[in-house]
Amino acid sequence: MCNMKIIIFRVLTFFFVIFSVNVVAKEFTLDFSTAKTYVDSLNVIRSAIGTPLQTISSGGTSLLMIDSGTGDNLFAVDVRGIDPEEGRFNNLRLIVERNNLYVTGFVNRTNNVFYRFADFSHVTFPGTTAVTLSGDSSYTTLQRVAGISRTGMQINRHSLTTSYLDLMSHSGTSLTQSVARAMLRFVTVTAEALRFRQIQRGFRTTLDDLSGRSYVMTAEDVDLTLNWGRLSSVLPDYHGQDSVRVGRISFGSINAILGSVALILNCHHHASRVARMASDEFPSMCPADGRVRGITHNKILWDSSTLGAILMRRTISS
Description:
Elements: H1 2-19, E1 25-31, H2 35-49, E2 50-58, E3 61-66, E4 74-80, E5 92-97, E6 103-108, E7 113-116, E8 129-132, H3 139-146, E9 154-155, H4 157-168, H5 177-195, H6 197-204, E10 215-216, H7 219-226, H8 228-234, E11 243-246, E12 249-251, H9 254-260, E13 263-264, H10 270-273, E14 295-297, E15 300-302, H11 304-317
Parallel strand pairs: 1-4, 3-13, 7-8, 11-15
Antiparallel strand pairs: 2-3, 4-5, 5-6, 6-7, 9-10, 11-12, 14-15
Organism: Shigella dysenteriae 1617
GO biological process, one term: negative regulation of translation
GO molecular function: rRNA N-glycosylase activity; toxin activity
């Protein structure tokens, strides 16, 4: 009888752990008060979810790879410091998937309503009431609804304040233009800035600029975001090659890599390779085949599709 109770207890414990995957979640703060607090906040999150790659490290700065941990695939990012002088606007929380840094939606902490994108309708967060929005989280959808491209979007303290107020005043299931614009801005300065120091660096200077200067994504910034999966698959194979080539992206040194990329997917762990939608909707996912790795040719580390395309063109022209 005693053994039977032990077995039942273990079974119940197992199912409790399985069904509580979304309940175990870390909470972080992203402080926009100054450029320094902003960068420090990003580094805290990166260090908590990633492991440094010793092969891509210089002067105390490393490229990090997201850990393949289990059980805590969600974390919360509490937005702070948008209005540092008055200390207002501290009720916005973003809910982020840990394995891939996708922002699943936002929480209005005044009423604890979690507005989640349609492609994350399965996601729950403890202590909140979930409302599923009518649109998904892809950049294709967000830009269409917002009526603006990412390269046409200005981001500074003022626009983030406006975006914050738009999100706090939202109710209902409709993915409105104001919500789409607000989420495009906040995704850029949270998830994309976590991934890319180039984006972090471009935006952070606006926080200490009293003139109201804005950060606007460049075509190169967008190209980085659209190739995060391919970069994540290739960069772990960097061991001092002369350069790295992924599509139109080229890095000629470790410092060039570190200046652009901060955190990569764990492409050789199954959880990072599972895509919910077509590759053109989520181009930042790892290649579907987890065995795809970088190829060294003529002392250059290549993404396989980039090298294949170049060799094909050479064959045709010869």
